[in-house]
Every structure is written in structure tokens, then in C-alpha cells.
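It would be a great kindness if you could assist me with a short task in structural biology. The matter concerns a single protein, recorded as an amino acid sequence and a row of C-alpha cells. Could you please explain, in whatever detail you think fit, how the C-alpha cells follow from the sequence? Thank you for your consideration; the sequence and its C-alpha cells are set out here:
___
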Amino acid sequence: MKRIGTRVITDPVRGSFLHLLEKYASKPGRDPQYSGMFLVPKSNKKLVKLLEEAIEEAKKSGADTKWGGKVPKKLNVPLHDGDEDKDIEEYPEYEGMLYFNANAKKRKPGLVDNHGVEIFDEEAFKSGDYFKLDINFYPYSGEQNGIAVGLNNVMWWKEGEALGGGKVSAEKAFEGEFDDDEDDDDDGMFD
């Protein structure tokens, strides 16, 4: 874990809403991009501090390059408090967490496993797994002003409990429904 200016290499964080191998548009009319939401335990004070420092660096850069010499009073920041912003009863995984979205619009982020082997198959990871990230914070301006998170590289670190129930295999979904009798008539359904 380290910070170099606005760039941070993280400790393992939990991933959700992952679109790391193919671009995805979150709403109609939006440009597709590679993206993910990542949860950071508030208890990891060192990582939280590095993220906050990188955000402050990006604010200084934005004041110089985007916002006419000063940081706007109304500024969207990427780090959100799960305890305040989410319904913990409905989304218990956000309890005690900070979270942020990271994306890459043009270049697909590098994606490797914890042995440095490139990952090409989205079946290799799922929402709820843990990842180390290479991210950078940068200012933007336009209709709104803020700080965004660029997704440079991702390392799958370890498996975690699936979020949102996870994908169930066809075998599991139809367990007990399989026709074991090859001579069984299909009740004329397809005559």
C-alpha cells in the first residue's frame, strides 16, 4: 500500500458491481466504461488516510487547472460513508465501510490474479471478492465539479462471500427438476 501524489496502490478492498473485462453503460445514453465499486473498511485507518490525502492532492490540482484558482464550495468527492449513505438493513456489507466508484473510459484496466497471471475470464472473480487496486484521483469540471477515481490496474486478491446473492449455477437453480427417466413422455408439450 502506498501513495504517490494522486495515485494510490491499495490494500485489499471488496469489489462490487464489477465491469472489469467489458465496458458497461450504467444508464441509457451514457458512455460505456470499465468500472467497479469498492468497499474500504473504516478500521483500515492507514488506507483511509492515503485515500483522503490523494483526494486533497486532486483538489489542489483542480484549483490550479479546472476551477480558476480555488476549490469550489460545492464539490463532489468520491469517498462515501456506507453507514450514512446506505440502508444497512438492506445492504449490511456497507456497515463500517467507506466506498467509492472507479472507472476507466478508454483503456481497459490491467487485471491479474494474486500470482501475476492475467485474467481474461469474468468467471475468475465475482462481486464480493477482494482486490488490490492501482487507482488515481483527478479533478473534473462541467455541469458539476468534483474528484473522480481512475481505475488503472486491478489484482484479484482472494475470494469473498458473494454480494447480492451472486450467480447461481444452472445445476443448483434446477436441482430436483431434472428428468432422470429417458423414456418419460413430455406430456405432449411439444407435439
Notes: The first strand starts at residue 2 and ends at 4. The longest helix spans residues 45-65. The chain has a mean pLDDT of 91. The chain has three helices and nine strands.
